[in-house]
Amino acid sequence: MIDGLTINLGGTDYIVPPLNLNGLEKYLKLMDRINETKDDPLAQINITAEAALIALRRNYPDLTIEDIKEMLDTESSIRLFGVVAEVSGLKKKIVLEPNP
pLDDT-based confidence at 95, cuts 50/70/90? Predict the structure, then answer.
């Protein structure tokens, strides 16, 4: 099991590891396709499921697209993408320091 951040999806805790370079390349391409298909909700559902599978597959190789579609809803998919961005270094962490 690769270290990462824990997220609860469909009532089960999953550890989301950082994306490896192959996964990062595929994930970023899918994120571009999300923007291109904003008027096609069915395409967005499938792209979202593919991206989630890429993010989780390193630790859960037996997961399928159907498993992902069963466990995700709109809210949890948004949370998952935030976790993937954070754990993979795609989103800078903001550290607030107290004023002196």
Answer: very low
Q: Cβ contacts of residue 49 below 8 Å, gap of 6+?
A: 65, 68, 69, 72
Place of tokens 């989301």: 16
Question: Phi, psi (5° rounding) for residue 91?
Answer: -130, 125
Q: What residues does each domain of the chain span?
A: 5-87
Q: Please check the confidence at residue 64 and state whether its pLDDT lies above 50.
A: yes
Tokens of 82: 């935030």
Rounded Cα gap, residues 88 and 65, in angstroms: 21
- For the chain, give me the number of helices (H) and strands (E)? 4, 2
User: What's the pLDDT at 31?
Assistant: 85
Chain length of the chain: 100
